[in-house]
Amino acid sequence: MSFTTKFxxxxxxxxxxxxxxNQLLKGGAEAEALRSVLSNxxxxxxxxxxxxxxxxxxxxxxxxxxxxxxxxxFMEEMGGLGGTFAAYNGKWQVSAIRxxxxxxxxxxxxxxxxxxxxxxxxxxxxxxxxxxxA
Length: 134
Prior knowledge:
Low-confidence stretches: none
Structural class: mainly alpha
Radius of gyration: 16 Å
Shape: elongated
Distance between the termini: 10 Å
Number of helices: 5
């Protein structure tokens, strides 16, 4: 098992919840069901970020200068995306989803597009570096 196996599994779980929420949106699900999946997603993302902060980034920071710089760049970028997701999650409570379903759908697509790109980049660029240090 590689060092990043758990991180990659968490990515898969996050993407599965993203897909589930998108399906619920398309299917016209009630605001409560949407919020439930969003809450689950927020928990998974929070746990994942904490694991990266405690295990992945410290490991990469100890490597060569190029790797350390890339890890720092990812950390800075994630802070921005993490803040964006936190604001999105905080705003879209059940009452807000009910009041502006189209706005929720648009915001969801924007946040999920950024999240998907981030996961793809971590899987392709960052995690292979961490796996080489095992």
